[in-house]
Amino acid sequence: MKKLLLMSAIAMGALTTTKAQDFKKPLKETFEVFDTTRDQEKKMQLGNKLGLIAKKWPNEWATHYYYSLAKVGLSYQEKDEAKHDALLDEADKERDEAVAILGKENDETYVLASMIANSRMMINPMQRWQKYGKIFQDNLKNAQEANPENPRMYYFKGVTTMFTPKNFGGGKKNALPYFEKAEGLFAKEKNDDIMKPYWGKFQNTFFIAECKKEDKDN
Known about the structure:
There is one protein chain. With 218 residues, the chain is mostly helical. Helix content is 76%, strand content 0%. The protein has 10 helices and no strands. The radius of gyration is 19 Å and the shape is globular.
């Protein structure tokens, strides 16, 4: 009887592990293509696929995290304010779901919250900077306190600095140190486990090259 119970327990454990691993492969493959393609139509299709993955595996924080991240990415290309905000409402919902499953905020969810706030601000900066600028800064600060070795925090700070007017402390020259800081930290990350976010290296390398170009913005 004991032997039978032990075998059943082992079988159940193996089944649970298999089910947990099932979502990792499609999640990794789908997000990596989403993250690197510049084809907006393809991004939308892959974003929808990430949504299906989140629905199929609703109890995994990572499926909601990456779906939220995809919605933020898509929002930056949406110029209609109502549609832009609708994408970010979904991003907020999925991020909140990820945090609820984790049971707490962490550096990655803070960076994601900062990105959502920044995107909300950028669609109408004159009217929104005062509210969402603070949320953006506060979440980046929280991310740094949670994990000062997170490269995505420096990468995103670089992006926002690069596209800030020079007379407000922005521009390529001021952004480059953030991208270079991120580059060193990205080099320490592995890309074999989708549960440990590693996105951003591809874009960070692109922006370093852009910052080093000699033009009027330097």
